[in-house]
Write a structure and sequence with these properties.
By secondary structure, this protein is α/β, with parallel strands linked by helices. The chain has two domains: 147 residues, no CATH class; 309 residues, Periplasmic binding protein-like II (D-Maltodextrin-Binding Protein, domain 2). Helices cover 36% and strands 14% of the residues. Bound molecules: fe (ii) ion (FE2). The site of fe (ii) ion has 2 residues, from loops.
């Protein structure tokens, strides 16, 4: 038990959750090697007037930040505009300005040039409890305020662009474990984990395609998890056979059609989109995007390259309109720019949530053959996780039906755990046969899919 906790107990108080500071300049360590700029989503917390502020950063001298909090609690003026700790991270701020009471966001330019926003959390709720007195006791009794923090899990998430994750909040509410989430696209997060090595603050990697997770596992960035609960809740074709990653949501990549121009009985399979009747009527995402690479990869797994290549050549012969956005493909179909296309199911779900009369519907491809291609958004625990037990708890939590519902409904995806009901918008589309090939194929055949697309002239 930390001395801070003991100090609280000596006052007859339990440690308030708000003292378990979760945020605090938690920008991960500087990138030492990267192939792309890292743009983390900004998270900001306003700083109120004369409010003690506790900051800590995993790559900096936390004692310096702790000492600053104690000085603020004692009411001492701290003159330094740029402390050594903050200079280290290039943070342009000062304690005086924090105490001036101007709501603000601290930004700094990380090595490599990307702008980051500093996370800060204040302790205002402790003031009615005599916080300044208490913090003084804490400062006298401990030089390690950070020890008083609650348990935490650091997540690198490629889902950040989907917005808030209500399931994360539910996890913290149930377990008291704080989640610190940093967003980025899958390639950025992969490079970041590789560059950080055993110094990474990340405990969990969440990605949006099985191919990404397969690549991370192959690179040694994910460690196996021995969890009977995860194995029971996640079907075998949606997880790594070595238990290094687990699907948490399912997204179908299927045929979308304009309901005013196409009848469902004109449609059948992915392969049939190469029929000349779809010439100049087909919209496709570019082959450079992993969603289509994964679809092609599973086609190669089913048919072999020799049979898959003519299928792609037939698509190309139909002069498809190439658009590198699933949402814009759906909008193009609705606008009559093309009549059919291939997109992930949740993009249509989102558009229908805004406009129930959006004139596009899904057609479940390959129901008489291999089933509709499904991919996952999933997670694994990093090889160098500092909070491995908490990270496993998070994955187990997210795989349970109650959390699954929160996790998938926020982005209109299908649950990976079959015990979970689907959102009404998705339920209206009916049930369908999934392609139950192990989705690891998306990674195993990714390189072959990229080469095949090149050979077939699919840009
Ligand atoms: Fe997506």
């Amino acid at each position: 038990m930390s001395r801070l906790s003991m100090s609280y107990m000596s006052l007859g108080l339990s440690l308030p959750a708000s003292l378990a500071v979760a945020s605090a300049a938690d920008a991960p360590p500087p990138i030492t090697r990267t192939s792309a700029p890292h743009r983390f989503r900004p998270d900001t917390i306003r700083v109120k007037a004369n409010t003690p502020v506790v900051l800590h950063s995993p790559n900096k001298d936390t004692e310096d930040e702790e000492a600053r909090a104690c000085r603020v609690a004692r009411g001492e003026r701290h003159a330094g505009r740029h402390t050594p700790a903050r200079q280290h991270a290039g943070v342009q701020t000062s304690d005086l300005s924090l105490r001036r009471g101007i709501p603000r966001t601290d930004r700094y330019r990380a090595p490599g040039g990307a702008m980051r926003h500093v996370h800060m959390q204040t302790l205002p709720s402790l003031r009615p409890l005599g916080l300044p007195v208490f913090l003084l006791l804490a400062c006298l009794g401990s030089s390690h305020l950070v020890q008083a923090q609650t348990e935490e899990v650091v997540v690198y998430s490629a889902r950040a662009h989907y917005g808030q994750e209500p399931a994360f909040e539910a996890f913290t509410k149930e377990t008291g474990i704080v989640i610190k989430s940093f967003g980025g696209n899958p390639g950025e997060l992969f490079e970041r984990l590789k560059a950080e090595g055993d110094q990474t603050p990340a405990d969990v990697l969440i990605s949006v395609d099985a191919g990404d997770l397969w690549n991370a596992a192959q690179a040694g960035l994910l460690a196996p998890i021995d969890s009977a609960e995860l194995r029971a809740n996640i079907p075998v074709h949606l997880r790594d056979e070595s238990n290094r990653w687990f699907g948490l949501t399912v997204r179908a990549r299927t045929i979308m059609y304009n309901t005013q121009k196409v009848k469902p009985d004109e449609l059948s399979t992915y392969e049939a989109l190469g029929n000349p009747k779809w010439k100049n009527r087909l919209c496709l995402r570019t082959s450079s995007h992993i969603y289509n690479q994964s679809l092609l990869a599973t086609m190669i797994k089913h048919h072999g390259e020799a049979r898959a290549e003519p299928i792609i050549r037939a698509w190309v012969a139909n002069n498809p309109t190439l658009i590198n956005s699933d949402t814009r493909i759906l909008e193009a179909i609705a606008a009559g720019q093309c009549d059919v296309g291939l997109t992930n199911s949740y993009y249509l779900g989102r558009l229908l949530a805004k406009d129930a009369h959006f004139p596009v519907a899904p057609f479940w491809a390959n129901q008489q053959t291999t089933g509709t291609h499904v991919n996952i958004s999933g997670a694994g625990v990093t090889a160098h996780a500092k909070h491995r037990a908490q990270a496993i708890k998070l994955l187990e939590f997210l795989a349970r039906p109650a959390a699954q519902q929160l996790f998938v409904d926020s982005n209109l995806e299908y649950p990976a755990n079959p015990q979970t009901p689907v959102h009404p918008i998705l339920a209206a589309w009916g049930t369908f046969k999934h392609d139950d090939v192990n989705i690891a194929a998306a990674g195993e055949f990714q390189a072959a899919a990229i080469k095949l697309a090149d050979r077939a002239g699919y840009k």
